[in-house]
Amino acid sequence: MVSSFENSLLEELEKLKEENLYRYRIVLPQKGLKVLCSNNYLNLSNHPEVKEKVIQILKEFPAGSGASQLVSGYTLLHKELEEYLAQLKGVESCVIFGSGYLANIGVIGALFGKEDTIFSDQLNHASIIDGVRLSREQKFIYPHGDIQTLKKLLEEHRHKYRRCGIVTDSVFSMDGDIAPLRELNLLAKNFECALIIDDAHATGTIGFSSLEYFGIKPEGHIIQVGTFSKALGSYGAFVCGSKVLTRYLVNKARSLIFSTSLPPPVVSASLVSLKVLKENPSLISSLQRKAKFVKELLIKEGFNLGVSLPITPIVPIIFGSEDKTLRVRDCLLKKGFFVQAIRYPTVERGKARLRLTVTLEHPLEIYEQFIEILKKCV
Fold first, then answer.
1. Mean pLDDT of 56-83
2. Residues contacting 60, CB < 8 A, separation 6+
3. Does one domain contain both 91 and 199?
4. Average pLDDT for 223-236
């Protein structure tokens, strides 16, 4: 018998179906199916050195860490990864988190309270949005990339609060555009704010970091958040900045303090991926060239890619209608290509899209085949 509680849930699920917003998981891998929506941009999750190291570490370490970092879950591997990452990022210190979501809610929650304020880009990732919502600080949401409006908000409100943070994605995960970091950094300095940058989709795609891409020197007010789970092909996240910052987070970030630390094999995979990338920086330029080629082909065929920039591997193919987006996705799936439909609330209503990603896993011929099939499915 279905309970009244379950009935209330079923009613909401039916409404989602009526609005073409119902979601379900597609089991992968499937033989013959070409997945073109992965964030494994550099294909490092399949790199032989990464896999071999994980196998080796499994023989030497437990499969899990067994505790949080502040209990007994902080090993030499964790410390080595943090130090190597800090070296690559050109900062004093880094600290590892369990995921990008945990990093963003942990950083924002630890650094800002009821006496503070934060200014957040309208199109920031859900983990940033939730971090802002869960914290007790006053928040201001500025229109996407709108420096002038942000400046006006800072002029009007900054003086009322103790600490101030400006938070933004660097590469936006659904649109493939890039935040105006030079201008944001200047505002952060002028108004004595921290600048929190989520580099999840920037690390390994536009450089080792978005700061490197813009030629911005890391300074004490800049906080770099990122993940190992995108271009680096592993799992987990990091926060990089000053030693003062990381010491503070180890003491105050609840999502770090009260979460079991990353398993040693996962840590080793991230470390090897970073080393492979450092030794082969041409992987980034190869990805960028491929992304530019694929986007040019799609634009030539008349597809709407919105504001996506040629340099990023994120390719939003915007249809607007949820119904049409789902029909095209399902048609492609039958033809052997999986590109997921992205709908509200992940993107705004009326901006439903297929989120194609360009990776080094597939040769250009696969993307050319995809575009030919896509034309027939639309």
1. 96
2. none
3. yes
4. 98
Please check whether residue 224 lies inside any domain of the structure.
yes
Number of domains the chain is built from: 2
For residue 350, give the CATH number of its domain.
3.90.1150.10
Residues 6+ positions from 329 with CB-CB distance below 8 Å: 339, 340, 341, 354
- The tens digit of pLDDT for each residue in 85-102 reads 999 999 999 999 999 999
Residue 14 lies in a domain: no
Rounded Cα distance, 171 and 74, in Å: 30
- DSSP character string of 139-179: EEEEPTT-HHHHHHHHHHHGGG-S-EEEEEESB-TTT--B-
Q: Between β-strands 314-320 and 352-357, what pairing exists: parallel, antiparallel or unpaired?
A: antiparallel
From 44, 352, 40, select the one nearest 201 (Cα to Cα). 40
Would the pLDDT of 186 be above 90?
yes
Could you tell me where the DSSP H helices lie in the chain? 4-18, 48-60, 76-89, 100-111, 126-134, 147-157, 181-190, 210-214, 243-252, 254-257, 264-279, 282-300, 322-334, 364-377
> In DSSP terms, which residues pair with 314 in a beta bridge?
357
Q: Residue 46 has what DSSP assignment?
A: G
Compute the distance between CA of residue 293 and CA of residue 259 in angstroms, rounded to an integer.
42
- Residue type at 239? V
- Return the H-helix or E-strand segment holding 354: strand 352-357
Residue type, 284: I
- 232 pLDDT higher than 90: yes
